[in-house]
Amino acid sequence: MQARKIDNATDYLAYFQKELNQREVFQHFPKIYGYYQELSETFLAVFNKKYENLFVQWAKLLAIDAQLQILLELCNHGKDDLVTDLGLTEEEIIAMIRKEHRFFYREITGLKVTQKPKVGLIYMSEE
After folding, report:
1. Counted domains in the chain
2. What is the enclosing helix (H) or strand (E) of 13?
């Protein structure tokens, strides 16, 4: 998804909504659906709030985005496999995402969790 094709935060979140709907995640996993709604609402609130420090806002948005990305990746298996394949309950999946999102961008850029992140906007979500 390219930035020039996104007019607002709702457009950005619509991609996740569409993908998770197509995989029937919301219909079969109500707790994960509630978690997605929480992430979406928080994303919109952070996006629309005026921050004195833009970097704080970016860090918050990146942290939420990392959770959305992980959720989408975990749901690649489809409705039948999500809980079974992971061997986790919905609550455990949500807890795992909340914990692991801090290292998401480090891992997708090839760094190990034990390595210090490089200086870059993408790493701002690490707490």
Report:
1. 1
2. helix 9-22
